[in-house]
Amino acid sequence: MIIGIDLGTTHSLAGIMTDQGPRLVANALGEVLTPSVVGLADDGALLVGAAAHERLHTHPRLTAAAFKRYMGSDRELILGNRRFRPEELSALVIRSLLDDVQAHTGAKATEAVISVPAYFSDAQRKATRNAATLAGIRVERLINEPTAAALAYGLDQRDAESRFLVVDLGGGTFDVSVLELFDGVVEVHASAGDNFLGGEDFVDLLAELALADLKLDASTLAGGDVAVLRNRLETVKKRLSREPDIEVDLPIDGASHCWRVSQERFIAAAAPLVERMRAPIQRAMRDARLSADQIDEVVVVGGASRMPMVVRMVGTLFGRLPLRHLNPDEAIGLGATAMAGLKSRHAALEETVITDVCPYTLGVETVMAGSDGNWLSGTFQPLIERNTTIPASREQTFVPLQRDQKELELRIFQGESPRVANNILLGALKLQLPPFDEPQQMPVVVRFTYDVNGLLEVEATLVVSQNTTRMVIEQNPGLLSAEEIERRLTALAALKLHPREQQANLALITRAERLYEEFLGEDRQAVMTCLVAFRSELESQDNDRIRHARHHFAQWLAQFDQVAPL
Amino acid sequence: MSVDFPWNELGMDGPGDRRAIKRAYAVRLKSCRPEDDAEGFARLRQAYEIAQAWATDQDGQPIAPVFVAASPEGDDRPPAPPASPAPSEMEPEPWTLARRDNDDPQALAQALLALEPAALARELVESPALWKLEVKDRLSAILARCVIAAPGAVSSETVAILAASFHWDDVAECRRLAQLHIPVDVLQQILQAAQLRRVVDEGGPDVPPLAQNLLRWGAGPKAWAYALRWKGAANVAAYLSQFPPPVARLVFGDNVIRFWNLVGCDGGVLALHMLRLNLILLGLVLWVRSPGYPEVSMGDFLRALGAPAKIMNALILSIASFKLSVIYGFQPISQPVPLGWSRRWRLAAIAVLIAVMAVMAAFTPLIVLTGLSLAIAGLVCVTMLKFTSSLIWGVSTLAFIGAGLRGLQELSLFRPVVERILSFDGFWFGLMLAALLMVVAEMVVREADAVLRWLPPRMSSGIPATAVLLVIWLFAQWF
């Protein structure tokens, strides 16, 4: 069974394809959205999801969140006395989702389609694959998030023909895609994005404003306080979409500070962030060779796109209000699931085909003759330009620079700058050259083949001898080697995840613990009393009683909590 | 590929309109999916893109990109489609902008260039005219041309803002500009130079202090002092060689680059300069030991040296001659003389020897042998090193001759002859004047305003500087 997974910065989802279309699978708490947070419980087992999210505040050193931003890098996060790479944390989230799927369907998933931001680099995509491997599931296809959203959108519009733009502002990444829908074909024309722009940045902004107003220094706050602050401000951010003025209590250092913020102030302060969204949109439009009036619809997805300022910006650019009938949190998960269905040739999707593009330019380093006769080294010569429909295969002929050259080194880069110094090195290929008189007599044909799964194969052929050297761009710094993956796989498999059945209870307990930390005085005592009562109910081992107690407890806590439930 | 390509590949009977092409493509795509058949899909896709360019209902730009990729087989390329209309060269066209004044793009470009960087950044973001792609494209080309034509006229901050806004560091945009015959490589150099300039100006922990100092020193005395340090000049030359020559020239200036290349290209060259400086100073020391002070003790010597006018004199001449020798002295400097290590050690040894002998000459009354040997050593140096073309050597040579004569004076055999020569009151005066005139002649001939660049800029042109030097020297003679 192939499932679809949306591995988001703040939330993750999983879904399965049914005859009625893609359906998302609920977790142990009955929600389709699982927070992408991993924590270490007191007994050494690992927590994933809502329970871990609550523990961000009470046990900040034992919990990790937003690790999607570190995928593809070497950065390790420390949980207690253990170090985890971002792939491993993502693997734990995926494992939790797989458990949910198994609980829902009774069968184990064998393969998954995972969504990644369209603008994820090669290294980041490989890291996502590694995360799936570490979770014990096969991933052959990664789908770009805006394409997934487009697929979710296009499933309802089978007979339509339109060109539309998908704007996806998630928790940590921003992606834009220009697509065309006709006769069941979903064709991506261009993609662009910003891997470091998302809802979290808006929360950071509110934190800056709050700390500046309260005249506090961010570096003096304890870890737990920071988590509380961010949690509260996340709610503020959501409420500012509807209410013009918010007043909130921020507990810092044991004291409760009252802070006000208005919608206008937030919008004014967030103007630079919104401005950053403009450049990728314009670039995608430019690469697709379309003007605003040629776009039929604009679709916004992603949790953070609920903010009116985002909608307004997009509306101003295109002269019309964007469509928001898709649930912004679920659209990508549904799209990934649909892709899984497509891959498994589900009957419901026989008429749909997707074509996607590669989001970045791939090329080699060359030396070119400048306009004043100088030789310019470090020039980037593209072979596969960005937004070329994949799979793509392109070739070009190069010659060595000097007469007595014995070796030709092909350095393969990914990026958009005309100078290789600003691009990312993917790999290098060395060719031995036989002796020759003139450089023109020794042409080398270089062919790049980029497949749907984002794997680049480079072939260099010496024309005179017809010798071909092949290389598949596998290894990247910051990524794990195959042996490393094996080793970590066994290590990870040995780690215990908290049993699924207890997750609901655990989420409630951790939530209560968080509130205990946040509150002061009488409220605190009340929370403690109820928590103790709940724990004693758990000891009774009677499922009905427990469920009853849980329900009441949850309701009671919800009245207290200023933070809206996820 | 047959003549019916792309239509047969799409399953069409002949050319059709865009809708028909899309429908045919969609049908074929179902059986030739990208993940199943990569090569087949590549062919289909190519056919689709070409067909779109040749659709029968072409009204304006086709939707899909029209450039033809290399065919998968590598041979038998299909005929290229008609290219999309490229923007023509800079002819003023009827232009409507969403601006109040309805400027034409040239005027708009000029107006933008005239703005301060902060205002420019704001205008580029807020101006609704620039939200249209065609406007932005035209402005990009015009502004690129302006910046290339006069790189010094546009500040590096402005260049950086324009580059960010018009994506001049994007490979697709560079290709578009190159198609308009804009020298994109020069633009890249200017961008690099602007970047470097901003980094150096703003300072910060990552900027090597060397870069900042280079900008401040220019090619003045501090630069020379640094150049004389152990490996000083070599370090600077190595740092500058990291940048492409055009970029380095734009940021640091032509003169500075030339100076450091000359001084820093070879440590042996610098050793030679130092040797020469040593010799010149030695000559001057000997001149101080003029007939006016026949018996000079250490105290007298120091007192004589302490005379401020003479010190200034010595300083001016030595600095001037060093500078001259660096820039013009060694011929030909553009092909630096390769010095083996043995030769360098020899030169260093000679320099040390001469310094020692100079000190001895100042103190010991036994000037006979000292003077003679110095004179011979001087001549040997000159001939051995074969720098006869340098007029500066005239200064040191004359000094040695003077010292030699002075030494000969002690020998009773030659005393009368030498005294006759030396009794000429103006002998020493004439000696130094002759040397100075030679310096002057060289400066005038070789436009040596670079020599005295350490003077305020107004005075840096050759002839006034020479006059000043002469006046100072004459003034010093009265004391």
UniProtKB/TrEMBL annotation, chain A:
Matches recorded under InterPro entries: ATPase_NBD, Heat_shock_70_CS, HSP70_peptide-bd_sf, Hsp_70_fam
Entry-linked Pfam families: HSP70 (PF00012)
Family to which the UniProt record says this protein belongs: Belongs to the heat shock protein 70 family.
SUPFAM superfamilies the UniProt entry points to: Actin-like ATPase domain (SSF53067), Heat shock protein 70kD (HSP70), peptide-binding domain (SSF100920)
Protein name in UniProt: Molecular chaperone HscC
Record keywords, A-Z: ATP-binding, Nucleotide-binding
Source organism of the structure: Magnetospirillum sulfuroxidans
From TrEMBL, chain B:
Residues that span the membrane, as ranges: 268-288, 309-330, 350-380, 387-406, 426-445, 457-476
Region (Disordered): 69-100
Keywords associated with the record: Membrane, Transmembrane, Transmembrane helix
Protein name: J domain-containing protein
